[in-house]
């Protein structure tokens, strides 16, 4: 019988590497990691794997899909194992801001479809504003002008 490997429930990291890692992330990353971490020793910190994955995704430089997911997460809408949200966010990131602007109707249809599956209200004008905001944030991040807002 093959040996099963359990995924760790926590991640350990060296405190001195945190500031270097923060340079590769959006502003606020360092504070979020510190808030979610426990100091184990002078140089060793630990955090729950789930928090690490959430923070890593939330503060990564991605693109318009990543930014849209971040905005949706802030209002309590998260990707689930059964939805296409992560796949579609990757498509948006890969194709870029210009494609997303040109295909905002398609993106709105994706969101409408998922809203229907979840039994959520869909307001197209609000969704368009959110998608446009995600595109602006992605462009700002790409030009290093990003501030959370």
How would the blueprint of this fold be written?
Blueprint: E1 10-14, H1 15-22, H2 29-36, E2 38-39, E3 44-48, H3 49-58, H4 64-74, H5 85-102, H6 104-118, H7 124-142
Antiparallel strand pairs: 1-3, 2-3
Name the structural class. Answer: mainly alpha
- Average pLDDT level: 87
What is Rg?
18 Å
Globally, the shape reads elongated
Strand arrangement in the largest pleated sheet:
1-3-2
Whole-Å distance between the termini?
Answer: 52 Å
Low-confidence stretches: none
Approximately how much helix is present in the residues?
55-70%
Number of helices: 7
Order of helices and strands: EHHEEHHHHH
Strand content: 5-15%
The largest sheet is: 3 strands, antiparallel
* SS elements, strand count: 3
Question: Which keywords apply here?
Answer:
three-stranded antiparallel sheet, mainly alpha, about 150 residues
Descriptive overview:
- This protein is mainly α and 149 residues long.
- It is built from 7 helices and 3 strands, in the order βααββααααα.
- It has a 3-stranded antiparallel beta sheet with strand order 1-3-2.
- β2 and β3 (44-48) form a beta hairpin.
- The longest helix is centred in the last third of the chain and has 19 residues, at 124-142.
- The termini are far apart.
- The mean pLDDT is 87.
């Amino acid at each position: 019988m093959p040996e099963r490997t359990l995924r760790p429930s926590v991640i350990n990291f060296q405190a001195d590497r945190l500031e270097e890692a923060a340079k590769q992330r959006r502003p606020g990353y360092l504070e979020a990691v510190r808030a979610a971490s426990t100091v184990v020793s002078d140089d060793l910190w630990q955090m729950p794997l789930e928090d690490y994955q959430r923070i890593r995704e939330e503060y990564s430089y991605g693109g318009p899909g990543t930014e849209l997911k971040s905005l949706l997460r802030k209002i309590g809408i998260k990707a689930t194992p059964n939805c296409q949200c992560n796949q579609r966010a990757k498509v948006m990131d890969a194709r870029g801001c210009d494609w997303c602007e040109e295909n905002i109707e398609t993106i709105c249809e994706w969101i409408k479809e998922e809203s229907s599956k979840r039994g959520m209200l869909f307001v197209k004008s609000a969704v368009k504003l959110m998608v446009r905001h995600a595109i602006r944030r992605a462009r700002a991040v790409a030009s290093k002008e990003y501030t959370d807002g």
